[in-house]
Amino acid sequence: MAHRVLQVTDRLYQYLLDHSLREHPAQAALREATRTHAHAGMQIAPEQGQFMAMLVRLLGARHTIEIGVFTGYSALSVALALPDDGTVLACDISDAYTRVGKPFWDQAGVAHKIDLQLAPAQDTLDARLAAGEAGRYDFAFIDADKTGYDAYYERCLKLVRSGGLIAIDNTLWSGAVAEPAAPGDADTLALQALNTKLHHDPRVDVSMLPFSDGLTLARIR
Ligand code: SAM
Ligand code: CA
């Protein structure tokens, strides 16, 4: 079968960045501050942040959810694209990770939009549902523990309005989802099960993008 996605060499990837990336100085500084972090590979790529900002603008989003903040690059990208009264409900369990990002949220002048909740994301989302926030949100980005994705997805289906969008990261999982998963490989098994479920989920329109590590867009019908 012919490759239907262009193979992106380092040279071509650099070209793409050189010819499209528009980062706020605080985004570039946050990437630099994260570059030497032991888990720097968890950060989304800058062109993905720019793409998510585009989605947020296209949706006219005001209220958004992020599940998995790390040092805050994706939250910063979305917050920069929101109107001044927009919000990011930012869910993470790590003070050590998220603390890195806060000075850069300040630098960009968007800290007031980011409501960081340090607790297991399921608890935060359940509390928001219990508080009557079903349908309040326009956009959600799921990028935390892979075995939790299905639970996050189900909650986001309730919290995000009809016509809103759920973006799910790492759905191609470095290609591992296309191979038989080892019985103990809970992350790959969880992503495979969710990908299969999404394919036929009548509640959403779906598009799986071979972008970065795979990004699935689910638009709520
Ligand atoms: N979106 C981030 C970025 O752009 O840099 C990367 C997120 S990183 C891949 C995953 C994050 O999920 C980590 O910061 C981790 O602390 C968080 N996490 C893991 N388990 C979690 C849970 N049960 N609830 C909330 N966050 C969780
Ligand atoms: Ca990710």
> What do the pLDDT scores average to?
97
Helix-strand pattern: HHHEHEHEHEHEHEE
Bound small-molecule species: S-adenosylmethionine, calcium ion
SS strand fraction? 15-25%
Number of domains: 1
CATH architecture: 3-Layer(aba) Sandwich
How is the biggest beta sheet arranged?
Answer: 7 strands, mixed
How helix-rich are the residues, as a percent range? 40-55%
Query: At the third CATH level, what is the topology name?
Result: Rossmann fold
Rg, Å, rounded = 17 Å
Number of strands: 7
- The CATH class designation is Alpha Beta
Q: Going across the biggest sheet, name each strand in turn.
A: 3-2-1-4-5-7-6
Distance between the termini: 33 Å
**Principal-axis shape:** globular
Structural class: alpha/beta
Plain-language structure description:
The protein is an alpha/beta fold. The chain has one domain: Vaccinia Virus protein VP39 (Rossmann fold), CATH 3.40.50.150. Helices cover 41% and strands 20% of the residues. Strands 3-2-1-4-5-7-6 form a 7-stranded mixed sheet, sandwiched between helices. Helix 5 links the parallel strand 2 and strand 3. It is globular and about 45 Å long. The mean pLDDT is 97. The site of calcium ion (CA) has 4 residues, from loops.
List the helices and strands and how they pair.
Elements: H1 10-18, H2 25-34, H3 46-59, E1 63-67, H4 73-81, E2 87-92, H5 95-107, E3 114-118, H6 121-130, E4 137-142, H7 149-159, E5 160-169, H8 186-199, E6 204-209, E7 215-220
What key phrases describe this protein's structure?
221 residues; alpha/beta; Rossmann fold; seven-stranded mixed beta sheet; 8 helices; 41% helix; binds S-adenosylmethionine; binds calcium ion
